[in-house]
Amino acid sequence: MLENTNPIVLLLIIVTVLVSIKGFSDYSFFEKFKFQVTRILNGERVRMVSSGFLHADWIHLGFNMYALYLFGDIVAKQLGNLPFLLIYFGSLLAGSLYSLYYHKKEPYYSAIGASGAVSGIVYSCIMLYPEMELKLIFIPIIPIPGYIFGVAYLLYTMYGMKKQLGNIGHSAHLGGAIGGFILTLLIFPQIFLINQTMVIILSIPILLLLFLGKKLNI
């Protein structure tokens, strides 16, 4: 199964797993490279990228790497290795930037995980193949069209931010998905002509955030 995986995607998964394992057992390493608002504002900007290679535990790591394996391979094979890397790291940075903006008044806020980057890749994949059907773990019998999943995912993320649901970096997910959406359009603008209606539908949550975010306290 892995032998058919794009080598760049596979390499990224391996590096992330190795760095995460290092972080599991090395507290000082973990603390040095995690996302932390005060540290970043004081100039340690490397944390905005390095935090994407750290994870809380094996379950957190496993979910993110499995999603990267599934969706990253599709994006890399469709757009090429360099565009894939631009979307991945661009989404990671977008997620960190949005988290920094959203939590700027919380000096001790910290976060880890590749979720922002992976969210960007998932959104990119849905834009490329909006007709793809996804089966969720808790309702595996009913396939959900990709574009519906994409809209629902962002709306849930915004709701999670507003209600502060769980110990989840919803802001990084949202920023990463927005990054993936914008970068995919910039790299592959033809997609707007190919799937114009779907692109417009997928942009709705982003437009809601931009124009109604303050009113909704998001």
TrEMBL record:
Entry EC no(s): 3.4.21.-
Predominant cellular place of this UniProt entry's protein: membrane
Keywords: Hydrolase, Membrane, Protease, Transmembrane, Transmembrane helix
Annotated GO biological process: proteolysis
Annotated compartments: Membrane
Its membrane topology: Multi-pass membrane protein
GO molecular function, one term: peptidase activity
Domain Peptidase S54 rhomboid: residue ranges: 43-189
Transmembrane segments: 6-25, 82-101, 108-130, 136-156, 168-188, 194-212
InterPro entries linked: Peptidase_S54_rhomboid_dom, Rhomboid-like_sf, Rhomboid_protease_S54
Family, as annotated: Belongs to the peptidase S54 family.
PANTHER family per UniProt: PRESENILIN-ASSOCIATED RHOMBOID-LIKE PROTEIN, MITOCHONDRIAL, RHOMBOID PROTEASE
Name the UniProt record assigns to this protein: Rhomboid family intramembrane serine protease
Organismal lineage: Bacteria, Pseudomonadati, Bacteroidota, Flavobacteriia, Flavobacteriales
